[in-house]
Amino acid sequence: MAPPSLSGSRKRTKLHDSRIKELEDGLTESLSSNASLNSLADLTSLAASIDEPHSVLKAIYACYRVFVLLVSKGRLESSTDEQTKVVRAWIFERLDEYVRFLCGLLQDEEPLLRVCSP
Questions:
Q1: CA 89 – CA 117 distance, rounded (Å)
Q2: Beta-carbon contacts of residue 116 (< 8 Å; ≥ 6 apart)
Q3: Which helix (H) or strand (E) holds 92?
Q4: Rounded distance, CA 97 to CA 94, Å?
Q5: Is 117 a residue whose pLDDT tops 60?
Q6: More confident residue, 79 or 29
Q7: Distance (Å) of CA 22 to CA 12, 18, 101, 112, 113
């Protein structure tokens, strides 16, 4: 039987991994149906708060895939519509958070995270 701390760590990792997948799937669906993207803030915050390197990598790549979808759907293109401008600015704020997080990983003590940063 694993020590309690290791077991708790595994549970937390599984919870993080399932939450990452849930958020990414929800955002992918939201982009398809033109629904709210509010969970993008949850995904970027979760990525920055995880301590387990493999879960951090999963969150990094989930964010990456979502931002690629946002770009491919034209959500970062300029617009004259005021509401679209507000949403675009909000997405750029989330993208900036993600970039700052990735830059911080370049100085991380964990070599896996320094090497694997996209």
A1: 25
A2: 57, 60
A3: helix 82-105
A4: 5
A5: no
A6: 29
A7: 15, 6, 21, 24, 23
